[in-house]
Structure prediction request, 88 residues.
Amino acid sequence: MEGPYYEGQRPQECGHYFPDVLRFLDIKREKVYYRVLDCFHCGRYTIELLDPSKELKARLDRNGVDIAVLVRDIPEVRKRELARLLQL
Ligand SMILES: [Zn+2]
Prediction:
């Protein structure tokens, strides 16, 4: 199945839609913030995170990394989020 999953849903950078595309983790390297996304169709890719939230920024400044979802949980999270979206 491929999105969009609701009216007006905007695609992620690779052209696919949440939850096919999940936030995998965020990292900070040399003062730059990055987001690694996990796409069911494209695999993992990294984008520069231009406008991180204040909370996320604080966590990345402190830890250097912020893990959104564990690798082993990705299929389950995708399934759960899809079920939730399709119920709306
Ligand atoms: Zn993709």
About this structure: DSSP finds two helices and four strands in the chain. Residues 14, 16, 21, 39, 41-42 surround zinc ion (CB under 6 Å). Residues 21-87 form one domain.
